[in-house]
Amino acid sequence: MSRHRTAALVGNPNAGKSALFNALTGARQKIANYPGVTVERKAGRLTLPSGEPLELIDLPGSYSFDAASPDEDVTRKVVHGEFEGEALPEVLVLVLDAANLEQHLVFAQEVLELGRPTVVALNMVDLAERDGLTLDAAALSAALGVPVIPTVAVRRKGLDELCAAIAEAESHADEEAHKRWHITLPERRLAAKHMARAAILSASARHTIENGVDRVLLNPWIGPVILFGLLFVIFQAVFAWATPFADALEGAVGAISGWVADIMPDGFFRDFLTEGVLAGVGSVVVFLPQIVILFFFILVMEATGYMARAAFLMDRLMAGVGLSGKSFIPLLSSFACAIPGIMAARSIPDPKDRLTTILVAPLMTCSARLPVYAVIIAAVIPETTLGPGIGLQGLVLFALYLAGIVGALVVALVLRNTLAKGAASGFIMEMPRYQMPRVRDLAIGLWHRAYVFLRRAGTIIFVVTIALWLMLSFPKAEPGESQLDASVAGMVADGLHPVLEPIGFNREMSLALIPAMAAREVAVSALATTYAVDAEDEDLAAEGVTDKIAALWTLPTALAFLAWFVFAPQCISTIAVARRETNGWKWPTFMVVYLFALAYAFAGLTFWIATAAGL
Amino acid sequence: MTLDGFENDTTARIVAVDWASLAEGEAKRLRALGVDEGAEVSVVHRGVFGTRDPLALRIGRMTIALRRVHARAIEVEPA
């Protein structure tokens, strides 16, 4: 046989499938998308005892083949051999949570009914022991008619035995299987109960730590306080810890750029590499540290089981605007960058909930807005204090964040009652047991997120920034004329300016908005360029530009610019990701239009009110 | 009596579920999680003050979260 042998992991959500997948394949994983659907396909390689390689795919967790989500639909199609482009896996590895057999054996019967060569991984036997359960794998194997291997994925226990069983499983497909199992769900559940009872040798008094911990973490009073305390720490970390790494990355890109500039002759190609490619990709890659830090916390929250509790606590607030607790994770991610936020919306089962979450994600104040806010606030808001520890500048920054959150909630409410109208979304989710996160799983998870982000930076963002660079660089300026003025972008700005003038924007601001489409913080360096501040570095440019803005902009103009950035879809990469995730241009187009409309309206309102107030 | 009005930390047996009042996907999910006639459940936590929504349900060895609107569709009796 020339092609590789294949196997697939199937099982309920929270059976520890991903941990088992990580333990079996290590870092040898390939993550892609199933064509046509936004469901992740995770594949990896492992070596069988015979030395033969085996391709293992990790199918999305399912409660039933009667699919209630796109994920479950993929699993159903793949194991039935109905998924186009995906070969029917030769062996199914059915993963069961040893401590939750009664529940997991229901889906197990559906899997075994297929009659495919199957091996059962009785996973997390250590947690079952913690809960006071002693299990008899042989009895379970006899009841199910397939090999049952006790495993502890996170401690690599039972993995060799499992590989050996996979290698031997292929020979015995069971054509008669469908006749042995009960058909209706109540019958299956009864059978599951009997099998679970027979497999449990002893069960001491139901001792679970969940109830005790949840009594604190889900307490209606203490729970939200702990959650917001944790969110506060996460935000501190995202903004404080990331700075040195972001600076280092920026320095590295600058160094490469300088090196290229030294070794290459002057000309178009050198400028293309340094100012287009390196500067463009560099401006996005600097967000990697923040994204990695944010995802570190998100992965820890997920791995420990706390994320489901956070969703539980946030559900009431989200329900108020027609969403559910499940939108909490994507919206939280969007504070670092809307791109991972929009991608995280995949975990929302209700399509209208998911669409609404994607459409409001860009309203969360992403980290790219911070440099813009910081520069403008420093320039026009006085450094007065309003009370002990409360500065006016900090308060304005807080108000901008709040404006984004309130904006997102209001827009979600409006969308759920108009375009994304539908039955009030529900919130039904399993609350996994608490677990210690494992460094290995965290590392693989982080690498995966970073890789996905970088791949995006390397494709969509790369193309976009180059297009923008071309717009900014051509046609070439006459001596004495500013390049920005002469370029295509400059001409676009001339066209834009009459439109933006009523809301208080001057020509320099209109011009700065164009390169800011690559990444918002570029607005700062673009303003620096137009004001002929001679500094390559953004921080130095910021210092110079602050003085210029303080001198040249009126307060209403500056406030209008801030209000603009709260809403404006100033990031082509986000639009591109929204297109991918909604499979078409319809919704991203809508997103761009409504966000620009909001930005224009709010910048205008800010300008007019501030002018009328005599500021 | 519906599950919504049932006392916390007390085992209840489900006598009937008004599936028709639930969205199809939600009904599927609840059934898959073991919420069905005859199942024994107990409410272990209730959400944020004021609305007491959502609620956490102990079913077998599993805890699931659902909303009060779902709990109102679940008819129970003391077990």
From TrEMBL, chain B:
Native source species: Qipengyuania flava
Gene3D superfamilies hit by this protein: 2.30.30.90
InterPro entries per the UniProt record, alphabetical: Fe-transptr_FeoA-like, FeoA, FeoA_core_dom, Transcriptional_repressor_C
GO molecular function: transition metal ion binding
UniProt-recorded name of the protein: Ferrous iron transport protein A
Protein keywords: Iron
Pfam assignment, any one: FeoA
Key word RNA-binding present: no
